[in-house]
Amino acid sequence: MKNSFKYCVLIVLSFSFLGIFFSCHKPEYNPERKISKIYADLTTITNGEITYSFPKTLHEEWIWEKDKLVQINTMDFEYLFIYDKNSYLIEVSSDIAKIVFEYKDKMLHKMKVLHENAEVMSLEVTKVAGKKITQLRESHFDWKSSTIPKELAQMLSAVSRCCFSEAINDGINTSIAYGLNHVKTTKSLAYTIMWDLSYINDNVTTIKKSFDDGYSTSYNYQYDSKLNPFFRYYIQDASEGTLFGMIPFSKNNVITADEEGNLSHYEYEYDGNFPVIQRRVETNTDFEYEYIQNPITGEWLINGTTEIEQKIIAKFYFEYLK
């Protein structure tokens, strides 16, 4: 999305979303109440004055066929959800990229994000406890390209349907279908991130992320007692772990999120057990510096500072199918 409300990704599905339905039984997203539309507005207040206002606008439209979510239309893209004959989700795609899902023992084991049919990222379940996922491995990949003559590319494109199907299935991008004269030939692992999840009852209270270089960081969450409409619906920015401040592994709604020391508070209005409005408030303090130039040396010196307090208020409105 190209707005301030959400920058969720299907990694390079233009970084619009990363979708997974993770659970340790047959994976399905079939909530008691099904979202039909999401609206959003945004207001920025700087030192007590409104400096930016984005009016309430349709943010997403969700299309269902009975109990299956089959399409999401956003402000920028359309996402299609494809299922197999046993109702297992096998692909989420747009015109830019797609996610494919792999299963093991009838449980979702891994998802792969493909851009131009080249795997650029994967997320794999590595540990479970009962029906709860307790560890994930997030892997990112680089590709090296080799150039082939334009004439050969044209010839290969004519037979790509038979000659490249196996290579494409292996995640190798020929690029020929896009009219280019090169192929991505070598995939290498760029880096990995391990996610360790801790629970209290049915809610994730801590997500610890450990990086290849030894650096680690933790995300801590507190919850209300109402039902999370995104439970088992994992469409998120992989770097954040939340969608509208909601954790897809958790049964209830986040009210406080401490992400690397950045504290966010969420307030809700409910219809029964489900939220219909979410209000998120972030307050940031910064300083504006006034400079003066030394007439002799030409050096610029700080002549004073002004404290700037900026408050960002984002509201999301959830409508459900009748």
Provide a descriptive summary of the structure in words.
The protein is mainly beta. The chain has a domain of 210 residues. The strands form two sheets. Strands 2-3-4-5-6-7-8-9-10-11-12-13-15-16-17-18 form a 16-stranded antiparallel β-barrel. Strands 1-14 form a two-stranded antiparallel sheet. A hairpin with a 2-residue loop joins strand 7 and strand 8. The longest helix has 9 residues. It is globular, with a radius of gyration of 23 Å. The two termini are 27 Å apart.
Which descriptors apply to this entry?
322 residues, mainly beta, 16-stranded antiparallel barrel, two-stranded antiparallel ribbon, 6% helix, globular, disordered N terminus
Distance between the termini: 27 Å
Give the overall pLDDT as a whole number.
75
Q: Strands of the largest sheet, in order across it? A: 2-3-4-5-6-7-8-9-10-11-12-13-15-16-17-18
Q: State the helical fraction.
A: under 10%
* Low-confidence segments: 1-25, 151-182, 236-242
Q: Specify the overall morphology.
A: globular
Number of strands: 18
Largest sheet, described in full?
Answer: 16 strands, antiparallel, barrel
Order of helices and strands: EEEEEEEEEEHHHEEEEEEEE
Percentage beta strand: over 45%
By DSSP (H or I, 4+ residues per run), the number of helices equals 3
Rg measurement, Å? 23 Å
